[in-house]
Amino acid sequence: MSAPANNNTSFNNKGSTSGCSSSSSNNSHARLLIQQCLAAKLKNETPEATIELEIGRGMVVYVCFKQGADGNTVLKLVDAIMSLRLSTSDDGELVTVVDLPGDILIVPQACLGGKVKGKSVQYHSNINKEEGERLYKEFIQTCKNKFTPEAPNNKLVAGIYGARQVLSMDTNGPYSHVVDL
């Protein structure tokens, strides 16, 4: 089987409401966008510093919390990331990111909660910023608690909630999945 073509994709986004939009018709409490990648780099810009993160083969996971999200939502999201067979192994089989083995880059992306109305996007279903940041931190810690013991040689890194972010990735797809929970 031949190797998939590489697509180089770059995004500029902010952890609040700029960057991308999506329309949603269900009553989910959170949304993930999972993108398989060969490599990815994320630069977080805060007033204090610029922090650069990078991963090798694995997945970039964008996460958005909506109204009604809680600790149970976080657990379901982490279970989805760790157990869904969304990564392609060297022999072409679909495996989990843990079984690949692969790295994970988590990017806060409130824009995923947007709903198209006319010629604009509204974010009325998104959780408030403070609660979103709290759940995001809980989500990262829960991912680390589950991922690190299962895949000790793999890397899990996460962007900063609310920080200006610049993302670059080499994809082996397009191979993206939206998960609403």
Quote the average pLDDT.
85
The number of distinct structural domains comes to: 1
Radius of gyration: 16 Å
Between the first and last Cα atoms, what is the distance in angstroms?
A: 34 Å
What profile does the largest beta sheet have? 5 strands, mixed
Q: What is the CATH domain class?
A: Alpha Beta
Shape: globular
Query: Care to count the β-strands?
Result: 13
CATH superfamily annotation: D-tyrosyl-tRNA(Tyr) deacylase
Which class of secondary structure composition applies to the elements? alpha+beta
Strands of the biggest beta sheet: in what spatial order? Answer: 11-8-5-2-13
General description of the model:
This protein is α+β, with helices and mostly antiparallel strands and 181 residues long. It has a single domain, classed as D-tyrosyl-trna(Tyr) Deacylase, Chain: A (3-Layer(bba) Sandwich), CATH 3.50.80.10. It has 2 helices and 13 strands. The strands form 4 sheets. Strands 11-8-5-2-13 form a 5-stranded mixed beta sheet, covered by helices on one side. Strands 1-12-3-4 form a 4-stranded antiparallel beta sheet, with no helix packed on it. A two-stranded antiparallel ribbon has the order 6-7. The N terminus is likely disordered.
Concise summary:
It contains 2 helices and 13 strands; from the N terminus they run βββββαβββββαβββ.
Which structural traits does this protein have?
181 residues; alpha+beta; D-tyrosyl-trna(Tyr) Deacylase, Chain: A; five-stranded mixed beta sheet; four-stranded antiparallel beta sheet; globular; disordered N terminus; D-aminoacyl-tRNA deacylase; DTD-like_sf
